[in-house]
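User: Predict the complex with pyridoxal-5'-phosphate.
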Amino acid sequence: MGLVKPLPYGRQSIDDDDVAAVTAVLRGDWLTQGPTVAEFERALAEITGARYVVAVSNGTAALHLAALAAGVNPGDAAITSTITFVASANCVRYAGGTPFFADVDPRTALVSLPSLEEHVDRLVRAGRPPKAIVPVDMTGSVPDLPRVQEIAKRAGAVVIEDAAHALGSTYRHDGTTYRAGGCAHATLAILSFHPVKHLTTGEGGAITTNDKALYDELLELRSHGITREPSRLERNDGPWYYEQRALGFNYRITDLQCALGLSQAKKLPRFVARRRALASLYDRAFTDLAEHLTPLSVPAGVDSAYHLYVVRLRARPGENQGSVAERRKALFSGLRERQIFPQVHYIPVHTQPDFRRAGLGSGSFPGAEEYYAGCLSLPMFPAMEDDDVERVVAALSELVVR
Ligand SMILES: *Cc1c(COP(=O)(O)O)cnc(C)c1O
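Assistant: Here is the predicted structure with pyridoxal-5'-phosphate placed in the model:
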């Protein structure tokens, strides 16, 4: 067993050209606040199709600033789905607001539109219309953003697309293809460049928008709320002068990180193509195991960039959810014994102790519970070989019949 190659659920691909790109910046004049940041932002604008991009220190910082730009103030409500990384909800709390949750469709792990509508309507009736809705592009799939935007508009909410899983994903609407993170059906979107994501800067993130005023605000919030822009100053004491216009943060990303990001961005089409090829290998293999395992379904019109590849363990006739969850746990451990390291994305956020203690996340989320009981994220990263997929599938077919 000691010689078997470990297969994590995700990992970065770093080549010599990435190392050279970072080294070149290290030998230059700017380690941070230099030209490479803007260059990386232009590359991201090109990739997503969004007009403006603000690169920041991580995806969570991007969510925090997006929540502030969306106008989430202390006491305000906002909604995300309960199957997501905790940061999608925490951003509302950072801004002093209260996160509420919508359920997911267990077949896709995407926000359930009827549930979203129900929770938005309930908040509107209670006189507390949500300031923001945060739809999550789970695994690289994309929810029906045009419909989410309609629901948001009716309630006066701003849509912040959490596109951390979806760089390179597209979706179709009315015969046109749109890119995740492009803000065609969202006011703001966020990306993450954590090592398991589609491209990495070590830690890193970005906010995209087509709104110039929000862009200007985000630039300031990223760096202490400070501006030197003459047209934005209230007074001007001289050439040294700057003003703090709002309470901002140091959420800057470095030129070192952006050099890595730029180098990685060149390879994004290849990375995404490889993820899609791996996904179709898995899809084909799982048709033979259809009575035990079902891949997560991707809505029609969506071309996922597959940040994750999730399979769901099917309930046996008459089997309850607790028993499915037990069998999933056994699969998880069995894979680990074979040096295959799956993951579970995600534990429903409303069940997290810190949310519970804060009195957040009450309600019933049967779709999320069903999904969580049986989901398993399998290895999915560009450097995986076809043989690796076969190894994972062989292990699963052996384990799943037990
Ligand atoms: C990774 C991720 C984030 C946060 O990104 P960090 O860069 O790790 O802060 C936010 N939302 C989702 C859905 C993510 O997967």
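The first helix runs from residue 16 to 26.
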